[in-house]
Amino acid sequence: MPPATGATIGILGGGQLGRMLAVAASRLGLRTHVYEPAANPPAADVAHRVTTAPYEDAQALAAFAASVDVVTYEFENIPTSALDLIESLRPIRPNRRALAISQDRLLEKTFLNGEGLATAPWCAVEDAADLEAALARIGTPAILKTTRLGYDGKGQARIMAPEDAADALAAMAGQPAVLEGFIDFSREISVIAARGPGGEIAAYDPGENIHKAGILHTTTVPAHISPNLRSDAVLVAARILNALGYVGVMGVELFVTPGGLIVNEIAPRVHNSGHWTQNACAVDQFEQHIRAVAGWPLGDGSRFADVQMLNLIGDDVLRVPELAREAGTAIHLYGKAEARAGRKMGHVNRVKPLRANSARG
Amino acid sequence: MPPATGATIGILGGGQLGRMLAVAASRLGLRTHVYEPAANPPAADVAHRVTTAPYEDAQALAAFAASVDVVTYEFENIPTSALDLIESLRPIRPNRRALAISQDRLLEKTFLNGEGLATAPWCAVEDAADLEAALARIGTPAILKTTRLGYDGKGQARIMAPEDAADALAAMAGQPAVLEGFIDFSREISVIAARGPGGEIAAYDPGENIHKAGILHTTTVPAHISPNLRSDAVLVAARILNALGYVGVMGVELFVTPGGLIVNEIAPRVHNSGHWTQNACAVDQFEQHIRAVAGWPLGDGSRFADVQMLNLIGDDVLRVPELAREAGTAIHLYGKAEARAGRKMGHVNRVKPLRANSARG
């Protein structure tokens, strides 16, 4: 049974994902209270209430939690102490286990492999000896990544040949890391899937992703994969959601390889590669997430159009006047004043009617 | 050239139309400042800023106008004194003439007939003698309406036979009125059309409306009309927009009769019968309106799905738990706490892929 109109969803983080979550909540008659350390975050324009305070401010966190019915988040990098305090007052959805796993590549890969899901070959690396042993096992090229966090290609170093090892290790700045073997993949796809509190699952059609300089550039739906692979991808996502007792939307990035699907990473939140759902589905990923965390039934994520999402990074936003004139193009800007290099300023969804051979769903 | 991110649109009125305008503005990176006499209006949940003050508060109006770049409105019933004050400080879009005409049925019908557009036969009625003469000319059944305002069937009285005349006149409570002849129409359709500051025009596919108890019940797109009538309807709307030098979105209600299209009424704002555009077009009526008033190029209003909009009036909102489970159904609630009879609480858009014989509009 949906909560009454006027119930409030607390959102940790006030970036563009929080902004679009707040808009989705408004469609369901729900209010949002955004908690964000930085002043004037993108979500503040459309949230009912905003708290500007650091994650170390116990009083602000307690007042925030007391003012809402349930708490969710738009990014993974939230201090444990803040989560502990909030969880003592209100439910946090998705749950702490999902967050802990997604914050730590070692936990994530161990969890995924434990569920029988393939990942790139990997080894934990704490020092030069570990790295030498890992390279001996995995070979080159490989990629060294810090174990914790990492977002849009930060905290990563490629090792094309053994002599790159020292520089790569230095780039980790002493943080624990994991060495991953390169995957010979033909495509990267992602599945945006949701699980409700009662265990029901809904998944969007997989999208095909192209990155540029480590940042998502486009997501295209439908992905150019076989119906079998499409089902496999959704089943992988469902297995992860069920194993975690997850509530909310998750983004699951997958590599398509000759040997089948390999899980690249999971994000316990709405995901950039799911922005296309805003203009091609009756219920988009943002509303689906709000539905799940608020205890509504999950909505219909069937796709009724073909679509390509294009991110507007930094100065790409200068293209808006031209994009605004394009047929079939929906614009989504985040209200950020300054277009710094690498900063996600907005995105567009280029929509086309379903192709005849592209089945609904 | 679109205004910079962070520009602010002032919106007079904080109801559901203001709420959905604020959400649309956020997609374009624009902020909204809502002016509304009542506390906690629906638009407050998603507006960047809200002023709660009566339309007679000159100081509040001036501060509001000074804080925004351009002013628009979500309803027609705004006191002239407030508009005069605001217009001395900031542009009002759509313009005052459109507002004056839509506020007064006599002005509206005179304007429409002057443009060569058909209306129902009508006579101005100020007293019993006028009404007797009008009934002699127009006959019964007919409908007596107050000249000014009137919304969702208020201020109207049917005259089925001459002996109903006295009661109908009494229902006008001494206000000037207009007697309209009944129209023998097969369908009511409406066109949602927009005009930009440079004179460009964009129209959505006409929708077919069903009313219940004087309140819009459903809008269905495509309307069951011939391609010729579809073009005619769009041309009628374009003529009105051009004649008024209009900037923004307008709703034009039309009757389909054996003799052609008859204009029922015009609304100088986003319109309930255009809510379907939220889930079937890349750019919906709310964004189209914001684009026009903010000086952006108009967007693509092509329809890429068939859709039926169903209003949720009063207790209809109790159906939400069931509607939330429906395939292809998008829910839009307005955040109103109390479901009074006749109150618009929300709407749903039921979306289906385009029918094969339904051309992209």
TrEMBL record, chains A, B:
Q: What GO biological process terms are annotated to this protein in UniProt?
A: 'de novo' IMP biosynthetic process
Q: What class of enzyme is it?
A: ligase
Keyword vocabulary terms for this entry: ATP-binding, Ligase, Nucleotide-binding, Purine biosynthesis
Q: Does the keyword Nucleus apply?
A: no
The record's GO molecular-function terms, alphabetically, read: 5-(carboxyamino)imidazole ribonucleotide synthase activity; ATP binding; metal ion binding; phosphoribosylaminoimidazole carboxylase activity
Residues noted as binding ATP in the record, renumbered to the chain: 105, 145, 150-156, 180-183, 188, 211, 264-265
Give the CC-aspect GO terms: cytosol
What reaction is this protein's catalytic activity?
A: 5-amino-1-(5-phospho-beta-D-ribosyl)imidazole + hydrogencarbonate + ATP = 5-carboxyamino-1-(5-phospho-D-ribosyl)imidazole + ADP + phosphate + 2 H(+)
Q: What InterPro entries does the database record attribute to this sequence?
A: ATP-grasp, ATP-grasp_carboxylate-amine, ATP_grasp_subdomain_1, PreATP-grasp_dom_sf, PurK, PurK_C, PurT/PurK_preATP-grasp, Rudment_hybrid_motif
Q: Which SUPFAM superfamilies match?
A: Glutathione synthetase ATP-binding domain-like, PreATP-grasp domain, Rudiment single hybrid motif
Under Enzyme Commission nomenclature, its number is 6.3.4.18
List the NCBIfam families hit by this protein, alphabetically.
PRK06019.1-1, PRK06019.1-2, PRK06019.1-5, purK
Q: Record's HAMAP family?
A: PurK (MF_01928)
Under the subunit heading, UniProt states: Homodimer.
Q: What does this protein do?
A: Catalyzes the ATP-dependent conversion of 5-aminoimidazole ribonucleotide (AIR) and HCO(3)(-) to N5-carboxyaminoimidazole ribonucleotide (N5-CAIR).
Q: Which family does it belong to?
A: Belongs to the PurK/PurT family.
Q: What is this protein called?
A: N5-carboxyaminoimidazole ribonucleotide synthase
